[in-house]
Amino acid sequence: MTVHSLIAKQLSAGYGDAEILHQLDLAVPPGKITVIVGANACGKSTLLRALSRLLPPTTGHVLLDGKSIHRTPPRELARTLGLLPQSPIAPEGITVADLVSRGRHPHQGLFSRWSRKDDEAVAGALTATKTEDLAERPVDELSGGQRQRVWIAMALAQQTEILLLDEPTTFLDISHQVEVLDLLTDLNHDRGTTVVMVLHDLNLAARYADHLVAMTEGRVHVSGRPEEVLTEENVRQVFGLESRIIADPTSGRPMMLPIGRHRMTTSQDFTENRP
Description:
The protein has helices at residues 44-51, 74-80, 96-101, 116-128, 144-158, 174-191, 202-208, 226-229, 232-239, 267-272; strands at residues 6-15, 18-28, 33-38, 59-64, 67-68, 81-84, 162-166, 194-198, 211-216, 219-224, 243-247, 254-258. By secondary structure, the chain is of the alpha/beta class. The model has no long low-confidence stretch (mean pLDDT 91).
């Protein structure tokens, strides 16, 4: 697989008169998993839209292999870079198999026909996301978790070198969250796919990221290895939250324990305070 570079330079973007990203700089490490975290409305989803060319910059540039992403032909870009947005909408009545098959459209030339390679890509994506049994069902009849896995299958069927995912674990219970993140890690390890995703769970982000990016108010606050980024001071500055950072006993990565105003008492405290 070809390794591509994706870089944002002095990138500003927004919607109408509202500027969300402010002269942001970001270099996505090729062939690695990058996870973007930050408080609500800090610009995470806007950044993914700008990186995928869905949102034009007001100033600055997004560069794919050193060339402005806006100069790349659409079909060529779709074979290189795929985006799974936060709330995708499926056409009414479309089946799972048909939706996943749409991930192959960038690989179809003007006169080319559906090929065995396309069949294999779709079948592999369905198997990887454990949605084979749903293939003939309409997407609008599925649960939120099932629907999310089907959208991920479509993104996998596209077989791009760079994959951007906005909160891919939305609507999933914890076991399916881990399954999806394991799947994306396998994709990265086996095919060298560059993965960039937005996650809300800081501990899952730290466990699965090679490169962690924390955003505040439309800018990159800090980026680097998880142990460099997930610190008590950074959690305080990015989320306004007091916390403790310990080593995850499973992965050895940093793990954040939030400190709220109300803390559980120990069983000893409860016993001592009984009337």
